[in-house]
Design brief:
The protein contains 2 helices and no strands. The protein is rod-shaped.
Length: about 130
């Protein structure tokens, strides 16, 4: 029985760990998109200041060219993170499924199944202060 409880705790830990990783990736993507928007506004302001919006123009601002490059790198990073995020969400579904199987097994054997704490969905706690 003790091994079943240990197995249950292990699966709960794994599930919560993957859930935390998914939430962390959500936050990273949101932060990067915010930074992208700031850089995009900076590029537009620089192009408006110089009156040249064609990056192939010889007189195109070096500052705008540099910021444009950073902005494009952020978009590539976000695309890679989204791919990883999707894979991590699939892993979370698998972990939750395994956890349910173990919980049912422990419950079926008459074990003391303690209810798992309900975790908020990824990103649900954004902007909320933690109460002490």
């Amino acid at each position: 029985m003790r091994s079943r409880d240990s197995l249950l705790r292990l699966h709960r830990f794994r599930t919560e760990d993957v859930r935390r990783q998914v939430a962390d990736m959500d936050l990273m993507i949101q932060d990067l998109m915010r930074k992208h928007d700031e850089l995009d506004a900076h590029v537009k302001a620089e192009e408006g200041r110089t009156g040249i919006s064609d990056p192939n123009n010889v007189n195109y601002s070096m500052a705008a060219k540099s910021v444009r490059s950073r902005r494009d790198n952020i978009l590539r990073t976000v695309a890679e993170l989204r791919d990883q995020h999707d894979a991590m969400k699939d892993k979370l579904k698998d972990e939750e499924s395994e956890l349910r199987k173990v919980e049912l097994l422990v419950e079926k054997e008459g074990g003391s199944l303690k209810p798992a704490p309900l975790a908020p969905p990824p990103g649900a706690m954004i902007g909320h202060a933690i109460a002490r």
